[in-house]
Design brief:
By secondary structure, this protein is an all-alpha fold. It has helices spanning 5-14, 24-27, 59-69, 72-80.
Length: 86
């Protein structure tokens, strides 16, 4: 059965689907047991980057957010959401 990404986890949780394959952070949901990710050679990792616009009015705030996202505390939250912190 093919379904919209937002419906994958609920379909697995209710038993309407036996298996869901998608991004881990989408599959993290009550009633869904994650068994792991595909081996690296079978998947493409998504990498999110950050940048600060040259003409931004809030460069210090943007820099502070980027710096925070690199801390162990932020990495724990990112990992708990099913993503791989960088």
């Amino acid at each position: 059965m093919l379904t919209a990404p937002a419906q994958i986890a609920p379909a697995v949780a209710t038993g309407d689907a036996e298996l869901g394959v998608f991004l881990i952070n989408v599959l993290v949901a009550p009633g869904v047991e994650l068994v792991g990710s595909f081996p690296g050679e079978l998947q493409q990792e998504l990498v999110f980057t950050s940048a600060i616009a040259a003409d931004t009015r809030e460069a210090d705030a943007a820099r502070a957010l980027i710096d925070y996202l690199k801390t162990p505390a932020a990495a724990a939250v990112i990992k708990a959401a099913g993503m791989t912190p960088g």
